[in-house]
Amino acid sequence: MIDFDFWSPTYIAFGKGKESRTGELVRRFGGRRVLLHYGGGSAVRSGLVGRVGASLAAAGIGYVELGGVKPNPRSSLIEEGVRLAMSEGVDFLLAIGGGSVIDSAKAIAIGAANGGEWRKFYVGREVKVRPAIPAALPVGVVLTIAAAGSEASTNSVVNLEPENLKRAAGGDILRPKFAVMNPELTMSLPPFQTACGLADMFAHLCERYFTPTADVALSDNLCEAVMRTVVEEGAKVMANPSDYQARANVMWAGTLAHNDVCGAGRVQDWASHGIEHELSALYDCAHGAGLAVVMPAWMAYVRETDVSRFARFARNVFGVGIGDSDDAASLAGIAAFRGWLKSLGLPLTFEELGAKGEDIPLLVKTLNLNGNTLGGFKPLVESDVEAIYRLCLRR
Ligand code: NZQ
Ligand code: ZN
Questions:
Q1: How far apart are CA 185 and CA 193, in angstroms?
Q2: Ligand 1: which of 75, 150, 181, 208 to mutate, judged by most atoms within 8 Å of the beta carbon?
Q3: Taking a C-beta distance cutoff of 8 angstroms, is the pair 205, 230 a contact?
Q4: Would the pLDDT of 214 be above 80?
Q5: Residue among 145, 166, 258, 273 to mutate when testing ligand 1 (max atoms within 8 A of CB)
Q6: pLDDT (tens digit, 9 = 90+) per residue, 3-40?
Q7: Around 83, how many Cα atoms within 13 Å sit in the side-chain half-sphere?
Q8: What is the chain's mean pLDDT, rounded?
Q9: How many C-beta atoms surround the C-beta of residue 216 within 10 A?
């Protein structure tokens, strides 16, 4: 195990009806004037925005609203949010939604606390070390989709216009103060979005599981347990979207997959995420769908880096390759992973995603490694990234 700092202060209020506590939680974490931020309509249609607003009013907290966050959140709305937060004297950001809304709120929280400056903290793989964020307003979350894990993560990923680049900011300062997590709120998700969420949280575990670090038994076992839970409980959710207990297990898995409890003490990879972010930037596809295409291709490409780790993955997560050689088991594990993604109805190729082979040089260019390598399990150079995109062309 390698040394680590771990600080995960997000207060979780989990269960049915917990959104009624939002006002109390904002007050507890110091908010007195809130910017209520939400997406393209689902949280308004379900009445959730109204219920949360009532909870704020009951706690004596004033608020202004800014809806309209699109998946792969855009910088233009963030700019509007920063102006609104500053002109209205907002001291707390409240995100109602999923990763896109939360990440947009985190960006506004940075801008409002730094005289309008937020963009320079969003960088890509061209830098080795992300710039430190000096200040950010506190952020709270009412989560409506189990997926990105942003409700307790250190990150924010946004789409910078007009260049159309998907870039990330990071730091403990971006961990939300609280997350209200009512699994019932996720029951209205379309099956495709539920599936994308499952793929994303599984990918967050893979990014940590595939590591060159030895002697990390605890986090290996944690990763495997959460992966198995995502597969097993995810199948129940897909079969019966109103299964509260399965929704609850999936929702908590999404948080544990990305608050870094499963990644502490180990070198992590994150190449697949870097490779995927270029796809969701260029094609505006769902992040989880892009990962369903990229992750199996990445696995096939890097398998020989540590065949025994892929064999362990096959046996302990998918229960395949038990009596086989490590080589055969590792291949069976990747095949089982693909089969699982297919069973969720997710795309597996560029064509199924709506991506184009002729764009591969552009994708590699916008990833902009700038001489750096990508990934901690097997450091990739540009030609490796291109080869992985090419593997995405076929099943
Ligand atoms: O906009 P509305 O109408 O609300 O619809 C949303 C959106 O279309 C819909 N939705 C959400 N909750 C719903 C619902 N529809 C019905 N019922 C509900 N309860 O779902 C769609 C997708 O929402 P989005 O917020 O984009 O989903 P997700 O949570 O998957 O977030 C994806 C974003 O997070 C980033 C991704 O890159 C992507 O931009 N990520 C953020 C991370 C982080 N901050 O730590 C890590 C991740 O790896 C990821 O990169
Ligand atoms: Zn992700």
A1: 13
A2: 150
A3: yes
A4: yes
A5: 145
A6: 999 999 999 999 999 999 999 999 999 999 999 999 99
A7: 6
A8: 97
A9: 20
Three-state SS at 62: strand
Report residue 180 as tokens: 């209200």
Q: What is the pTM of this model?
A: 0.98
Name the residue among 92, 129, 97 with its Cα closest to residue 108.
92
Distance, in Å, from the CA atom of 359 to the CA atom of 74, rounded to the nearest integer, reads 22
130-141: average pLDDT: 97
Task: Give the whole-number percent of the chain exceeding pLDDT 70.
Answer: 100
CA dihedral 382→131→279→289, nearest 10 degrees, is 120
Residue with tokens 């967050």: 204
Which residue, chain included where needed, has tokens 């908010």?
31
- Residue 325 CB contacts under 8 Å (≥ 6 apart), including other chains: none
Q: Report CA(189)–ligand 1 centroid distance (Å).
A: 11
Domains and CATH numbers, the chain: 11-185 (3.40.50.1970), 191-391 (1.20.1090.10)
pLDDT band at 194 (very low <50, low <70, confident <90, very high): very high
How would you label 332-368 residue by residue, b for 16+ Cβ within 10 Å and e otherwise? bbbbbbbebbeebebbbbbeebebeeebbeebbebbb
H helix or E strand, kind and range, residue 27: helix 22-28
